[in-house]
Amino acid sequence: MQAFYQRVDKAAHRQQVQQVAEQLKEHPPPRALTPPPKLKPGRPKLKRTAEEVLAAATAADAVVAELPQPKRARGNYTRWFDSPYINDILVAHARSGGSARRTVLSLQASTPDNRFERLSHSTVASWFEKGNLKVQHQQELDAGRAAATYSGSAPALQAAPGAEEEICDILLKLRTAGTPLNSHIIRWVIQAVLQENHPAVLNSLTLSQQYISSWVRSNPRLQFRWRARTTAASKLPSDWEEQGIHMGQRMEAAMQLHKVTTQSTL
């Protein structure tokens, strides 16, 4: 190693450094090239003029207008807050402890028809927030109650003054006495009251099942709720013979009281 490299003292080292410095001063090295800036990820934006943008938008609108528009299949949607069954749904929801699924199942199992077939538990759950009706649904419910027919007399019975009050009195007495009430009995009561006092109203009044159901639910004195359809009102009671004897005795007493006589002809 000593044969290839000469020993350099401190003075010679300084002289060499000075020579290298003078050479670099006279002939400086070239500067390193600046690397190009890095491109951002994604495709660079294409700069277009305002006229080009408007022309492209107009062409796109023309193409969309020529395309055939798909037909939207609109299904049947039930507005439950406008239906006469909303009160039954709210009562069932309270009885089920706020469970929407149990509410729907109990309503579908207890009603005789398919009135709640289209009611889903997700719909009922969307009405409530923290156990209470949402503000918009509460306002809709209040507006429906304010506009309901039970704020006054039923429109069909307005032409028969006093008939609605008399019908309600008879139905309440029957219910207090324990008589099972169904649509047939209610229809007979309405027909009897109107036939006696306002027979002309029966010519323009159709006592359908839907009308009787809506009237019974909306009347402020009654506010009945339909239970599952049974044949309890059509069955004879166990003491029907005794009740028949009592009815005959009451008829005989009424005939003696009003001095009603009958003549039998053979």
Count every helix, treating DSSP H or I runs of 4 or more residues as helices: 10
Strand content: under 5%
Structural class: mainly alpha
The gyration radius over C-alpha positions equals 46 Å
Tell me the span between the first and last alpha carbons: 163 Å
DSSP strand tally: 2
Would you mind describing this structure in some detail?
With 266 residues, this protein is mostly helical. 50% of the residues lie in helices and 2% in strands. Among the domains are: 80-147, no CATH class; 152-228, no CATH class. It has a two-stranded antiparallel ribbon. A hairpin with a 2-residue loop joins strand 1 and strand 2 (132-133). The longest helix is centred in the C-terminal third of the chain and has 18 residues, at 240-257. Mean pLDDT is 77; it is low at 147-153.
In short:
With 266 residues, the chain is mainly α.
Chart the SSEs and their pairings.
Layout: H1 10-26, H2 50-66, H3 86-95, H4 100-110, H5 121-127, E1 128-129, E2 132-133, H6 135-147, H7 163-176, H8 183-197, H9 209-218, H10 240-257
Antiparallel strand pairs: 1-2
